[in-house]
Amino acid sequence: MMAKPSIPKGTRDFSVDEMAKRNYIFDTIKQVFALYGFRQIETPAMETLQTLMGKYGEEGDKLLFKVLNSGDFLSDVTEADLAERNLNRLAARLCEKGLRYDLTVPFARFVVMHRNELTFPFKRYQIQPVWRADRPQKGRYREFYQCDADVVGSDSLLNEVELIEMIDEVFSRLGIRVAIKLNNRKILSGIAEWIGAPEKIVDITVAIDKLDKIGLDKVNAELLEKGLPEEAVARLQPIIQLQGSNEEKLQVLRRELAGSETGVKGIDELKYILQKLSASPLRSTLEIDLTLARGLNYYTGAILEVKALDVQIGSITGGGRYDNLTGVFGLPGVSGVGISFGADRIFDVLNQLDLYPKESMQSTQVMFVNFGENESQACLGHLSRLRAADIRAEIYPEAAKMKKQMSYADSIGTQYVALVGETEMAAGKIALKNMTTGEQSSLTIDEVIALFV
Amino acid sequence: MMAKPSIPKGTRDFSVDEMAKRNYIFDTIKQVFALYGFRQIETPAMETLQTLMGKYGEEGDKLLFKVLNSGDFLSDVTEADLAERNLNRLAARLCEKGLRYDLTVPFARFVVMHRNELTFPFKRYQIQPVWRADRPQKGRYREFYQCDADVVGSDSLLNEVELIEMIDEVFSRLGIRVAIKLNNRKILSGIAEWIGAPEKIVDITVAIDKLDKIGLDKVNAELLEKGLPEEAVARLQPIIQLQGSNEEKLQVLRRELAGSETGVKGIDELKYILQKLSASPLRSTLEIDLTLARGLNYYTGAILEVKALDVQIGSITGGGRYDNLTGVFGLPGVSGVGISFGADRIFDVLNQLDLYPKESMQSTQVMFVNFGENESQACLGHLSRLRAADIRAEIYPEAAKMKKQMSYADSIGTQYVALVGETEMAAGKIALKNMTTGEQSSLTIDEVIALFV
């Protein structure tokens, strides 16, 4: 007996219902991307390991899925290699390709390879799966989609403004209430500079992040424990206790960080972005949050994260500005700013709040019951008419028992069931049953079509 | 100096223009699939090698991309394994996953794993990349998309009828004139049975296929050479020279194959399908073609292939009926019928015939030139209005030289360029330039919006 088939751990099949939901999310995002002038690209699932290795830190390198060379994969492997059993060295001999780990490195590689064909600023989006050999756990998969939009080759803060508007528009269309949290890497650098402890940024943001949970005394104690001088902790108090409106926060920051050129630059950037956005009809809350420190080594300007207001879940979108996307591939000076929507978490949020619009889940609009050879022949004509009017319609392929056909109708969630028996054929009518209301009426094909116009 | 980045051979990046074209193809196909009640699923890129191996013949096994186990991939490898250098055995120890080779085997695995959640007949479509370690050459890639629609769990020939209508509708929407060629595996079996040489089917169809090129004498010579008895070749003459309308062909076949039960069954099936389709407003040519023998071991009933009439290229779509999709995974009795669109070839055909509709290639509709801080602030308000009306619009992010901004406008193929300088701001107007005609007019934002309604 054959073993039951299975799929690799951490991967998923998507059923027709799940796909309908995912398509709704991706289609919504794509429409908004297009509204703002972003255009799609795709890159191959496999990249050379030369492109991938060393880009995600030592831990990242370990999480790359490597693809065994095809043909004689041992041809480059010596006896000594085998005897030594050094995993890294052997993997480098056995594999020259890997599966992409994110969309950023392939995009950087794309920009470098195609730089002569591209006009900058280049506004691209990309929605493709990525693979990571992470330990699978709830909500963490080894294959998942990323959904990125970036503008490269422009330093203008208008790009940040438009990306935030895009985020607002996407979540407004999806019906998810969100807070968009903003920070700026330069402000964080300014703070660290100002208290004379540049290497402590992470400790500081981590401690501030706990303020609500553990209270000010414990935050201060933690900072001292991390080796911050008492004087620095004292100076940090207005920052740790930063509160009030965005304007109030900016005022405090401007006062405290006046001595840091970098800090002031960050404050100016943040202020500019908020000011531009104040003219936009945003529906999301915009909130300065100094604890945002995502990808600290990567981002150089704006940092943003999006939190759903009505569901307890991690950030559902993030992004920021980086100064040097392509330097690692030998092309310096390409700066950019981008955002990434967390499709899996957005999927969970929409599920929890039950926010999928009925239309997005609907497939077939009219299903014809099959009563036999003559009747189905009549239905084929009706089907042509409906489909020509862009109405999604199908016929049960066999003259099975009514119960079976109706259970199929239920399973596909059809809006109407159409019955064409001898009576209907003689009268040139269709008995149409509304599956929501249960109501049944006798209509001509033109009247059926008119229902959907 | 860093090496120039590259991508694995046989793989491709898709630029924004290529993606627009591909999306046009896939969107057209998806819309038609949905019109006929097919719904989308997706399966993981990686499958277990247990699922993949042995399904594509020995040659296919060699073309599978295998993924190195993560972590200590040598843990299962003994000294003896290493010493022996047996590639197959070693690969089996090093890898337990591979990249999917087609969409059919993963679909069969999906049906078996989810059989208790599915209602049959199950009509699914799937559009995803597949990977094959083939030698790359013109038009053959190591990563390419397949685009499959199948109905499983129904023996009704109505499914064949609807699939052929779908093909007709897709190519009609794409504007590609095609011939749909039909055959039936049972007719081929009938022929082989009837001349007493069941093992010669492939030789026979290959020889018949050359009739146009080499002529009847040489076809007959080839058949004799392949070991067919003279008497069999003589009996085959009416079949080899089969000509005329589909009705005439069916008549000849029915006369010649009257003695073969299987053959007659195949003829009946073909006739039924043609008859049902005769009531449909098909735009494609339907043509019985006995040389169609694709996937002979796999198909058990209808076989079909689609040829573009105006471009010299291999078949751009194919499909057929199979009796036992899931038997290899321990679930017998699941029959089905399916088709597969060749996206890459369709892409080439549309390119050669220059058939992409202008709208499908258009991204941004209005691009605002950036004249500076105040002017761009005014543009942001206009942009909100346009986007709220679902008009795709953007602003050049910096106040760069006019020439640079216009060259960007060209590169994105915007329909209009909008200029808002001091004069326009004072007058509450927008100077709008039609990029096709060069015409320029001074309009209010409402008038601009009205252009697109």
From TrEMBL, chains A, B:
One of its GO terms (molecular function) is ATP binding. CDD domains: HisRS-like_core, HisRS_anticodon. The keyword Cytoplasm applies. The keyword Repeat does not apply. SUPFAM superfamilies: Class II aaRS ABD-related (SSF52954), Class II aaRS and biotin synthetases (SSF55681). PROSITE patterns: AA_TRNA_LIGASE_II (PS50862). Its EC number is 6.1.1.21. Gene3D superfamilies: Anticodon-binding domain, Bira Bifunctional Protein, Domain 2. Residues 1-397 form the Aminoacyl-transfer RNA synthetases class-II family profile domain. It catalyses: tRNA(His) + L-histidine + ATP = L-histidyl-tRNA(His) + AMP + diphosphate + H(+). This is Histidine--tRNA ligase. It is found in: Cytoplasm. It comes from the Bacteria. L-histidine binds at residues 102-104, 132, 146, 150, 294, 298-299. Its main location: cytoplasm. Homodimer. One of its GO terms (cellular component) is cytoplasm. One of its GO terms (biological process) is histidyl-tRNA aminoacylation. It is an enzyme of class 6 (ligase). Keywords: Aminoacyl-tRNA synthetase, ATP-binding, Cytoplasm, Ligase, Nucleotide-binding, Protein biosynthesis. InterPro entries: aa-tRNA-synth_II (IPR006195), aa-tRNA-synth_II/BPL/LPL (IPR045864), Anticodon-bd (IPR004154), Anticodon-bd_dom_sf (IPR036621), His-tRNA-ligase (IPR015807), HisRS-like_core (IPR041715), HisRS/HisZ (IPR004516), HisRS_anticodon (IPR033656). Belongs to the class-II aminoacyl-tRNA synthetase family.
